[in-house]
Amino acid sequence: MSQKLISVLVATLLCFAALPWNGRTEPAARAATLAKSAVNRRVSDAIRSGVGRIDLGQAKLGGVSIKVLRLALGAVRCAVAAGDIAAPRTLTLIDYSRPSIEPRLWVFDLKVGRLLFKELVAHGRNTGENMATRFSDAMNSLQTSLGLFVTLDTYVGNKGYSLRLDGLEPGVNGHARERAIVMHGAPYVDATRAAMQGRIGRSWGCPALREAVARQVIDTIRGGGVIFAYYPDANWLRTSRFLNGCDGASVLATSWSAHHGAGPWRPALIQN
Question: Which of 111, 106, 121, 113 lies closest to 62, judged by CA?
Fold first, then answer.
């Protein structure tokens, strides 16, 4: 072997010896960078989709609690940032702290921030009378579930035209499909009946609507819309990852601030 070749080999070995030992961590660092980029893309999608650009004045005139609306929008942004859902077109907000005889379901178009529907909605038979007080995800409980849902496809069953829902919070609403918790129309959701008996009729846990409007609402929110079912349940408010931060939430908050400044929506998920 020539002296020149030996010199080249020695120089090459010295170069490798001089490399930092953290080279082995490059794949992990690359994976973290890719994951962060994916979160940033999802955040950008949420921002471009108009999530959070709801007209607060119109919402308030429609009877919506702004505090609850901010919780809902924060939960949606968190779910989008974490990759649980794609940026939705609609938000359906249900405030089960309101009596059943009052409209307590609102549908918002998140593209333009407009309120589309304001409706009565039933709660489960074992959730309460006029006021909802008990909630469960257990099979055969006949109770309403709280939390964040995503809307799926429609079908015609024994309740008529219905919309399947997927619960996104295990232990809170994760059994929605197994329990056949769907949105449908029902004759017992009726203002006249409510005036006579002091409450509207109750479902087996489904968010049932007036028959006259059910199909229109379902067709508006089907296929990827989100439903946020609220009640001031201390345990859920304390433990829900969509209300208390999830993967990418800190990135979301930073990105949202960069795009929209320190306004009332920065970030909604921490404005409890």
Answer: 106
